[in-house]
Amino acid sequence: MTTLLAEKKTSGGIRDLGKMFGSGQSTGRQFGILGALVVITALFQILTGGKTLDPVNLINLINQNAYVLILAIGMVMIIIAGHIDLSVGSIAAMVGIIVAKAMTEWHMPWPAAILLGLCIGAAVGAWQGWWVAYIGVPAFIVTLAGMLIFRGLNQLIGNANTIPVPADFTFIGGGFLPEWGPDTGFNNPTIILGLLITAALVIMEIRTRRTQTKLGSDKAPLWVSAFKILILCAVVMYATFLFAGGRVGTSFPVSGIILGVLIIIYSFVTRNTVFGRHVYAVGGNSHAAELSGVKIQRINFLVMMNMSVLAALAGMIAVARSISSGPQDGLGWELDAIAAVFIGGAAVAGGIGTVAGSIVGGLVIAVLNNGLQLLGVTSDKVQVIKGLVLLIAVGIDVYAKRNGRPSLIGKLLNRSKTPSTGTGDKTTPASNRPDESTEETPSLVS
Questions:
Q1: How far is 340 from 366, CA to CA, in rounded Å?
Q2: Contact of 291 with 144, CB cutoff 8 Å
Q3: CB of 316 closer than 8 Å to CB of 258
Q4: Helical H runs in 216-352?
């Protein structure tokens, strides 16, 4: 009887809402930062008199921050594996200048130039990955050296000059979905894209519930799933009409399409593949992973190479948006990417983090930057505020882990204590329980 009462206490009301986006400490932090993003956006919407959610501003927000969000996708895998990469801004700048020269001076077609840039990124990543994985030099040192090397090569190759790029190439960084179909007052492809995303969200939720039923695993009540889908679909369609209703000639940015495809791919890789599970295992406990048969050197090599490829792509998108490549490209990009990952819920010690959380963290930084600029805050004060946000976010993470507690959201959902079963056993003290963050770590079983 006591057991049944304890089980009833763990469900219902706000506790059921806690199952909306999963459970566990890591998910709780990401749920919290998602709420913070909503609050920050609403606050700036009020303070700026409605300018934050203006279609023109939203389009610029995506275009201006797509490269940081792309870097965050690669950086979260680096940090999950227990490393750090300080060279991504310099790699992006070097690849950008080479691609610009290839098209302008060597008359290379822009598709071939993009392929060249990706190949250079892969080669640079293989170089740094070799030092980290097979020589054993810490990634911090390797990428610090890379930051200096590739920044110098950017200056050397470009002679510290600005090099323009062809108009066709700018489409990937500053282009929009084209106009076609009947005149509805909106961009029709953007509306169709929003409807497809909405349908995909519904189908994914249905499939998730069917899988949970088949496996006999715990799942949220039906009303929670319906409420979740209603909120997500409402947000997607609201954003769709904002992007589709901008000034004539604009719509959802092409850079946003590229970012969305990368989010889908890397979310699948990190959550549903053996490679993704091994990345988590290496960051969580490299010795245990090695004993389990994980090829640690290979994993470290591949995550470093993957990061450089994404840095090369981010650099080319930024060059396409600015219509030229210059010596100041990439400065501070690595710091924004790292901040996005940590704000998005990744653990400092590695082993925890998600692509979605990092994107949300990156959007928090983007909205902060944009909102403060709209309010006329000077750049020096913006840097101070961003630094404080990062420090507080990581500080909360470290404090919660040190004390064996979940996040504030986790406390509200009352998941920090294990209910008594009535058998005489006492609740295990927080200091003696396994780290709750391991709930998010995928199994090594393939």
A1: 9
A2: no
A3: no
A4: 222-244, 254-272, 274-284, 286-291, 296-322, 333-343
Alpha-carbon span 408 to 29, nearest angstrom: 8
Cβ atoms within 10 Å of 18's Cβ, excluding its own: 23
Q: Give every CB contact of residue 227 below 8 A, 6+ residues apart in sequence.
A: 17, 20
Alpha-carbon distance of 337 to 71, in angstroms, equals: 6
Q: 304 pLDDT exceeds 90?
A: yes
Distance between CA 239 and CA 236 in Å, rounded?
5
And the tokens for 276? 């993704």
234: exposed, middle or buried (C-beta count within 10 Å: 0-12, 13-18, 19+)? exposed
CA torsion angle for 401, 405, 411, 416 (degrees, to 10)? 140
pLDDT digits (tens, 9 = 90+) for 32-88: 677 788 889 999 999 999 899 999 999 999 999 999 999 999 999 999 999 999 999
Q: Parallel, antiparallel, or unpaired: how do β-strands 163-164 and 324-325 relate?
A: antiparallel
Distance CA 95, CA 331 (A): 14
In whole angstroms, what is the distance from residue 69 CA to residue 340 CA? 8
- Please list the alpha-helical segments (H only) found in 10-109: 14-17, 25-47, 55-80, 88-104
Q: How confident is the model at residue 404 (pLDDT cuts 50, 70, 90)?
A: low
Task: Give 22's pLDDT tier (boundaries 50, 70, 90).
Answer: low
What pLDDT is stored for residue 426 in this prediction? 40
- 163 DSSP β-pair partners: 325
Q: What is the pLDDT of residues 306-334, one digit of tens each?
A: 999 999 999 999 999 999 998 889 898 99
Strands (E), 64-183: 163-164
Which pair of tokens denotes residue 314?
Answer: 């981010």
What are the C-alpha distances in Å from 150 to residues 92, 146, 217? 9, 6, 49
pLDDT for 401 equals 63
Helix, strand, coil tally for the chain in percent (to 5): 70, 0, 30
pTM: 0.83
> Which residue has tokens 């295992």?
281
Query: What CA–CA distance (Å, rounded) separates 322 from 164?
Result: 9
